[in-house]
């Protein structure tokens, strides 16, 4: 089976002008994901895990390398050089991203955020409202918060809403950047149930986790990132190697 996503010799660095310092985040990284796989990435804070995901989502532009994605709408394209309009379309219809942080437009309620994510996929308002209710109930977000602004939410509530907004679109490729970082055990299980459901539906996932127990029996493969490079995880309990 051909790869849905192929990262080839990707390098990204940052310049701290105030300190006159140059930092290499990732160097010569290569990784291939087949359709339907769930690849997990572990590593110390600052090791470059999130940088890789942000390059895929095009929040960051790498210094060198390619990120080839097999799009339903555009065919095989390099996410590094694709036009901005194409990236926006892919984010809307094919590629989802869940981070630890919730960035939303001011004066937008939790219900509106999730509903809008569904409507922009082309669904009608009635269907969007039904799916919104199902998703908010799944994550047990208190009904009193549904029509409130997320700026007033706790960290865990914001994270649950962020996950709900991304997963409700059922993207072809889902990038997960510490999606369970500030969640309690019950909420983590809710995330796991949806991940397993999306996997059954064919979603391909690349996820960063510090909670190794959460990844067990979930990932197809696991990598550790050290010194800006990917290494096959040393402990592959219940995980397959390359």
From TrEMBL:
Signal peptide: none annotated. It is a peripheral membrane protein. It is found in: Cell membrane. The keyword Transmembrane does not apply. Residues 5-242 form the ABC transporter domain. Transmembrane segments: none annotated. Keywords: ATP-binding, Cell membrane, Lyase, Membrane, Nucleotide-binding, Transport. InterPro entries: AAA+_ATPase, ABC_transporter-like_ATP-bd, MetN_ABC_transporter-like, P-loop_NTPase. One of its GO terms (cellular component) is plasma membrane. One of its GO terms (molecular function) is ATP hydrolysis activity. Pfam families: ABC_tran. Its main location: membrane. It comes from the Bacteria. The keyword Transcription does not apply. Belongs to the ABC transporter superfamily. This is Phosphonate C-P lyase system protein PhnL. It comes from Paenibacillus pectinilyticus. The lineage of its organism: Bacteria, Bacillati, Bacillota, Bacilli, Bacillales.
């Amino acid at each position: 089976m051909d790869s849905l996503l192929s990262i080839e010799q990707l390098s990204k660095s940052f310049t701290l002008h105030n300190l006159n310092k140059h930092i290499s985040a990732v160097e010569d990284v290569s990784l291939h994901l087949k359709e339907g796989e769930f690849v997990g990435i572990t590593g110390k804070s600052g090791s470059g895990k999130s940088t890789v995901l942000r390059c895929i989502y095009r929040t960051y532009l790498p210094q060198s390398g390619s990120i080839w994605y097999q799009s339903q709408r555009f065919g095989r394209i390099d996410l590094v050089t694709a036009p901005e309009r194409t990236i926006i379309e892919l984010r809307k219809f094919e590629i989802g991203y869940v981070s630890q942080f919730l960035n939303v437009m001011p004066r937008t309620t939790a219900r509106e955020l999730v509903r809008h994510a569904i409507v922009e996929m082309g669904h009608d308002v009635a269907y969007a409202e039904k799916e919104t209710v199902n998703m908010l109930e799944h994550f047990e977000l208190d009904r009193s918060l549904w029509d409130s602004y997320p700026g007033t939410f706790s960290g865990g509530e914001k994270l649950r809403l962020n996950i709900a907004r991304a997963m409700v679109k059922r993207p072809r490729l889902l990038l997960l950047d510490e999606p369970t970082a500030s969640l309690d055990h019950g909420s983590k299980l809710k995330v796991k149930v949806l991940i397993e459901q999306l996997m059954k539906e064919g979603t391909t996932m690349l996820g960063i986790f510090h909670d190794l127990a959460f990844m067990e029996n979930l990932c197809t493969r696991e990598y550790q990132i050290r010194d800006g490079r990917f290494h096959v995880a040393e402990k592959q309990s219940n995980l397959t190697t390359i």
